[in-house]
Amino acid sequence: xQLAMIGLGRMGGNMVRRLMGGGHQLVVYDRSPQxxxxxxxxxxxxxxxxxxxxxxxxxxxxxxxxVPSGAPTQATIDDLAGRxxxxxxxxxxxxxxxHDTMRRGEALRAKGIDFVDAGTSGGIWGLEVGYCLMVGxxxxxxxxxxxxxxxxxxxxxxxxxxxxxxxxxxxMIHNGIEYGMLQAYAEGYEILHASKDFKLDLRxxxxxxxxxxxxxxxxxxxxxxxxxxxxxxxxIRGFVEDSGEGRWTVQEAIDLxxxxxxxxxxxxxxxxxxxxxxxxxxxxxxxxxxxGGHATKKA
Length: 299
What we know:
The chain is an alpha/beta fold and about 300 residues long. The chain is built from 13 helices and eight strands. It has helices at about 10-20, 35-40, 50-55, 70-80, 100-110, 125-130, 140-150, 165-195, 200-210, 220-230, 245-255, 260-275, 280-290, and strands spanning about 1-5, 25-30, 45, 60-65, 90, 115-120, 130-135, 160. The protein has an eight-stranded mixed sheet, with helices on both faces. Helix 8 (about 165-195) packs across helix 12 (about 260-275). The chain starts with a strand and ends in a 7-residue tail after the last helix. The model has no long low-confidence stretch (mean pLDDT about 95).
């Protein structure tokens, strides 16, 4: 089927490739003319701006938005809302806050435009193995877009999980779980690496754990890959960003009075990773010196 892809970054660009490989017709737009021309060279129809995108699509139109969450997504949807018509569909495949998604869905519904949220997992590997899609939206709109989802996803890798907002809610919790998993692997491998009794081959251990162990996972396969390239991770600084979904997951847990200590601490550890020297740790060291005479180290 025909659709447009707005945003040709690492995710959007690979999704265009997978969709075209599945026989879909793509109209593409990105703020970077070079990116647009790259995909035009691969068979997509280029567009100059969002007005050109909408003009090239045959109604009823489907536009997939794959831009950063927050203001960029809002600006893109606002622009499209003024150009699309009743019966058209906007799909937001980014990591938007589900509260924003529900609000946007209500605003677009008043114009007769369907809004579908597609929580998308798969990262840079999605082009090859497919994307796990957690989809929220009106039943009819989701059914109409199903050929898109089935092309992007591996077998059984797509589900309509509820009304508009449900897809981004499920993806938010998915990413919160991811935070906890990453932290658990990080702590385990750090203990192994720090051992004074054994000089351990972390790549070999990761490979071993991927064979029948209860901690085997795709994430651990990626650990094996990373240790194979750089056994001590010497070329990587331990600075870890957060996309926002971990924070939102923790906030939702607070709002629902649901204990989530692992995810919460994993988020806090990401904050700690960005501090070259924690002021809080300095306070602890200073207080230990004051009440117990414990030695401190010079900065």
